[in-house]
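The data are quoted verbatim for reference:
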Amino acid sequence: MGEIRITGGEFRGRIIRFPDEISLRPLTSFIRKAVFDSIDVEGAEILDLFAGSGSFGIEALSRGAKRVVFVEKSKKLSDAILKNLHALGIKSCKVVNQDVMSFLKSRSGREKYDIVFCDPPFSMNFDKDFFPLVKNFTRKYFILRRQKGKEIGDEKMLSEFFPYYKKRIYSDSVIFFAFERE
């Protein structure tokens, strides 16, 4: 089993576990702390796309988020997220075991979230419909993690739908913080 430690809030220091036979590159505690130092999640409703271990959403809940919807295609990872939420006594969540594009297309325009966090596999190329769809779900922030050096095309597409964004580099990762207006 892989393990990640929550870095702040109510569950600070608690461990979440996930199956390590699945290839994951969870957010490091350094990146998670940097992201959460940049945004306020108190009372926020969050959509965690490509949730993986669930570390982003669980960290957000620990720091005062109101509700998180986790979307993860892998049944093993979805089950692990549910177990971690149960172990922490968290009930204000939903775990959706579904492909992200299918989820976005099936619910487009019906749901809005204060923060949409997206951490897809670095090898993934976005469908042309991805950014317009995800914009429909975003009230305040869209946060995207990509691999350093390979984010150029993603940045171009992102900027078409989110003209205001900041880009931060952390080791092998680039984090985009996109928002509606400055």
Observations:
- Residues 143 and 177 are 5 Å apart (CA to CA).
- The radius of gyration is 15 Å.
